[in-house]
Write a structure and sequence with these properties.
By secondary structure, the protein is α+β, with helices and mostly antiparallel strands. The strands form 4 sheets. The chain has an 8-stranded antiparallel beta sheet with strand order 13-10-12-11-15-16-14-17, with helices on both faces. Strands 3-4-8-6-7 form a 5-stranded antiparallel beta sheet.
Length: 393
Amino acid sequence: MEKSSQVTLQPSPVLPRNPQELADALAAAATRNRTIALAGASSKHLMAGPVEPADVSLSTAAMTRVLQYEPRDLTISVEAGMRYADLDRLVAQNRQMIPLDPPFSETATVGGILASNTSGPRRRLYGTARDLVIGMKFATLEGKLVQSGGTVVKNVAGLDMGKIMIGSFGTLAAIAVVNFKLIPRPAAEASFLLPFDGLDQAIAARNRILKGQTPPIAIDLLNPLSSAQLGYKGHLLALRLAGNTVAIERCRRELAARDALVLEGKEEARFWKQVQEYTPHFLEKFSQGAVVRASCTLAQLKEVMSSFETAAIARAGSGICYAYFTRADAAVRWLTSATGRDWKAIIEFAPDDQRDRLDLWPAPGAELEMMKKIKQMFDPNGLLNRGRLFRHI
């Protein structure tokens, strides 16, 4: 497959070993007005827009230290290059978690997850990175290290500055250190699969479950094409519940009466890992494929899911839908047909050799002008990760 120049022409990355080295490297490049490509492990290099060829390439992949971990306070501070999988295994030793469930979880770095604002099935209950990050330190093009928030859950001073970095795709500054609040692992968990012949039935069941006594930590809806990929049939409503043992046993009895399939142990873990990593597996299989993300209200979810003629998975309790097109031109056609509807839709992943000419974000809305103003504040000369924010910034 033809490779994009945005990938092949980048110089070998400089690997700062700590936040100060990162800040110094940014300042050295900016002082000479040199363009900069910034990344972590580049696990999501097919996501959003391609970085235009740059003079300098920086990676935080060597910044992997745990700076502070207080299990009793439910806080941890780590450098941005630490892999999510390593972080998850570390806090699991104390029955704690950071339930972001990002795709590419084995290779994705903490900084990359925040820069792309990726999350997974458990966002239904625990939220996204903006809900779990209590502070961060980032390096600016002036060579400064700016502290936002802290390592105490109640300390929210200055947190908004850090929130600006989340989802910015490295176009403003370089995330150096991230402070998370940790969540205790629940006493009991259980997962259930409810198959349906029609979408109407699945949506009706979703509505009943969301009004129930035990809110699910995850509720995903797979259409027949995506559920078939995982070995199931029909529209599949996947639930993950957590709480005390009594509550979980009550739910188990109630759902057993609806002929739900119970997932336990390794089978449960395997299913949710397949859902979490559906996007990476799809992109690996289809080199010319594209992934569309559409955001809608819960009431609109049926309309959005019924518009897809390809494999699709929805965070059915959050209104986030992902559709998987084996060719990028099919994703473009769907996006064109969705223009003017009351949804927010983008091409989230696309082939390397097509991203530089695709309209990945056709209707950004009024927020784009604010993003450009913030970009001007942090990077007035437009040096950092040019084009990375869906080719608009």
